[in-house]
Amino acid sequence: VSLESLPLRIISFAPYITQNVYLLGVGDKLVGVTKFCKLPEGEIKQVIGDLLTQDIEQIIKLKPDLVLATKEGNKPEVVNQLKGLGIRVFVLSESNSWIDIKNGFIQMAELLGKTADAQKILTQLELRLSAVREKNAPAGSPPKVFFQLSEQFHTAAKDTFADEVITQAGAINIAHNAVGRWPMLSVEEVLTQDPDLIIIPLMGNITEQAKAGWEKFPLLKAVKDNRILIADADLCCLPTPENFVSLTELISGILHK
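^ thats the sequence. predicted structure below, dont judge the formating
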């Protein structure tokens, strides 16, 4: 993407992009967001659709200088259609690792004229990660974690945001070597692995049901030690630098007291 001047009218195609725009201090430049994007209290932006479906006519009416999209979440045909209409679109790559997340954040900051701010933010976050790693100094076998993403026991394997967080927190993701990035484990597989911590992102009404389902197994380490964590869904699933470090700190704090 080539910009002759800093964008003054930005559209975000993903909730984590919106979070990053605000983290960089340019939320006032946002004119369009998805219906899943969370905004600071009192702020209202035009909703242009969701991750998979966007209202092209509405986007044109908003006259954006820049549209920020994601390679994994948004449809390439929509991106190509917008480019064909002369709208500048920048597509962020996958955010499956800390390096991916940092690179994407810096790229976005460069487009928004916030490179120095981004570097300061990342420097502080790196210091927090270093503190976590020091606390995670090995003393025996690393603890094990199961990250439950649905009531059907979908989880995150290697090359995912969640897997990288668990590793950075000094633990082992029991699904790391499963087939596919988003495999489904059986209850028996989880019981056999006997995780020290089970993480359940908020999933509406089924969240407490999911927790209660595991509490039927009192000999499971995570149950026995009262380590079933119900966590904010955005914190667990939106790959911003701040979320990555905050979730790593949270998991490490539970496992390495």
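The beta strands are 10-12, 30-33, 46-47, 66-70, 89-92, 144-147, 172-173, 197-201, 228-231.
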